[in-house]
Amino acid sequence: MTTIAIKDDTKRELLKVAAELQMKLGRRVNFDETIRFLLQQRKKKNPHLLIEACGLDNSDIGKMLEELYNKRKKDEQKYADYFQPST
Fold first, then answer.
1. Which parts of the chain have pLDDT scores under 50?
2. Where does residue 47 rank: exposed (0-12), middle (13-18), buried (19+ CB within 10 A)?
3. How many CA atoms lie within 13 A of 80 on its CB side?
4. Helix axes 31-43, 8-25, angle to 10 degrees
5. H or E stretch including 31?
6. Residues 4, 16 within the same domain
7. pLDDT given at position 42
8. Is there a single domain that holds both residue 51 and residue 14?
């Protein structure tokens, strides 16, 4: 086992996460489990964070999705045309 040094405010935040995790799991958890949980969460995609980071609102998201779908259709058509046998 290794000892790490963290600031008091970081420890308080970690305790809050641990408390939330304990309530969710219905059992006591230690700092190691809490940190492992946070590391696993980091690996998951979170579209809400991306939207927030980009400063987008719901109307922008709809327009972006529509544009992405249209471009995807065009790409698929180009692919189909390219690989369609010539007659």
1. none
2. exposed
3. 6
4. 80
5. helix 31-43
6. yes
7. 78
8. no
As a whole number of Å, the CA-based R_g of the chain is 23
Amino acid at site 5 = A
pLDDT for residue 11: 94
44 phi and psi angles, rounded to 5 deg: -80, 145
Same domain, 32 and 54: no
The single-letter code of the amino acid at 23 is M
Under 8 Å between Cβ of 38 and 17: yes
What count of residues does the chain have? 87
56: left (phi over 0), alpha (psi -120 to 50) or beta: beta
| Whether residues 60 and 80 fall in one domain | yes
pLDDT of residue 77: 87
Please give the model's pTM, rounded to 2 decimal places. Answer: 0.50
- Residue 21 neighbours by CB under 8 Å, 6+ apart: 29, 33, 34, 37
Q: Which domain holds residue 82?
A: 46-87
